[in-house]
Amino acid sequence: MSAGILRFQCPVCRDRMQFRMQMHILGIQIPARRPTWEDKESYEKLYEMHGLCDVSECLYTEGREQAEEEGPWELLVCTSCAVQGTHRHCSSLSESITSWECDICAGVGTASSDEPQLAGPSTA
Fold it and tell me: Which Gene3D superfamilies match (predicted)?
């Protein structure tokens, strides 16, 4: 029922036309609509941007959930996973850094701050 008529097919051969006709003859009715997982509301949470600093010790006096548009308290979100975030100041990132990658995506023990003195091979 959640897939709708567009995904209604024979589970064995995946034929759609003959299977739909036979199911109609048997009285099985399937709604003529798109699959429910394709509704815009299904993906709403994916479009919400991560909004807090995830470093172990956030230094911002306003709190982890607060950020400024620019400057040392701008919140950068991991460019790879978008699951982790950090304030520039909390991760010692300069104003010239435009993107950031969390330790999980960059690899444990490495830094993705584009500053050579911080980047290095993992020792884990």
Answer: Zinc/RING finger domain, C3HC4 (zinc finger)
